[in-house]
Design goal:
- The protein is α/β, with parallel strands linked by helices and about 375 residues long.
- It has a single domain, classed as Aldolase class I (TIM Barrel, Alpha-Beta Barrel).
- About 40% of the residues lie in helices and about 15% in strands.
- It is built from 13 helices and ten strands.
- It has a ten-stranded mixed sheet with strand order 7-6-5-4-3-2-1-8-9-10.
- The longest helix is centred in the middle third of the chain and has 18 residues, at about 210-225.
- The structure holds iron/sulfur cluster (3 copies).
Length: about 375
Amino acid sequence: MSIESKFRFTPIVKCVAFSCNLRCDYCFYFFDLRKRSIMSLPILEATIKESYLYNDGTVNFVWHGGEPLLASRNFFQSALNFQKKYNTDRRATINGIQTNGTILNEEWIKFFSDNNFQIGVSLDGPQEFHDYYRKYPDGSGSFRDVMRGIELFKKHNFPFGVVCVITDISVEHPEEIFKFFVENEIYCVKFSRLIYRDRSGKFLKPTVHPEKYGRFLLKLMDIWLIRDDPKIKFTPLSDFFRSLLQGECFEECLFSEACTRFLVVNANGDIFACSSEGSDERWKFGNIADGIAKVINSRQFKAYQDRIIETRKRCHFCQWYSVCKGGCTCDYELMSNGSEHNALCGSFKKIFQYAKNKLSEFKLI
Ligand code: SF4
Ligand code: SF4
Ligand code: SF4
């Protein structure tokens, strides 16, 4: 079987790479946000065509930005039309959008609802934490407008999720974060930690220290377990348990060792590794217009595959390897002073042990 026939591809489509109505202080596009770059229809078509070619089951499109809603409903209607054209064997298709939530309106909700989109809204918890970094160009906070967008989803009973970036400020406040989401009836939240680099790739101050993030997750897990409410779906907390119980966690990439599958397609069609956040030239694999076959046969893609194997060398001796699989490839450069090691490893070990003890307590393993 050739490498092409085995390869599966989940596109993270930066359909409006540098366009956004916000200027969040921690945005990794901060320096480029005035360049405005919206994906052209030929690049969109190539992305969709290749995605159906390199998937045999469900095809999952992750629409990102900048702010993807600035691409307009016409753009997404074109995407749906291309999906119809290339989904010749009628496979299940998921369209997920990650939006900052500030320009949502009734028309967008109707469009999402008519076309079964899955929506993630960026909301960093209570106003004081959210507005600290997530601002408009005039420096005012975006919290109120995001909450207005969320109220629209609630009004229409449209299911939505939230991505909450844990920052150097909020990492000290797991209780407040938990209380805020539950009190606002926001039950589906994915927590990710803030990683901020300058243009040379150097990590800057707001980057959350891995140990602090680990402590945050442990505390959050504690509160979540005490609350014991099946409505509350907090990621990655549930991933630790799912991975322990099933040995696999397909819903999220974190414990799946499948980083080569998730590729960023920039607005101009350039393809990057997910871990590069679309800008690290080391992990630029080619352009979607040249086809995925060329991308996965590129020298850079092979180097990235080797890197994933190399980074996990130490992991094979770890008792948690079957559930952790080495975690996220991004974390191998984070604060490691050049030594290749997963910065969250120590925290992961504690959390896996804690989750395992809980499962034993409830006689589930
Ligand atoms: S909403 Fe996203 S793309 Fe826009 S400035 Fe904030 S982090 Fe950057
Ligand atoms: S690099 Fe991290 S975020 Fe990207 S696919 Fe791998 S595990 Fe997921
Ligand atoms: S816990 Fe650490 S050593 Fe073990 S598999 Fe995960 S990253 Fe590797």
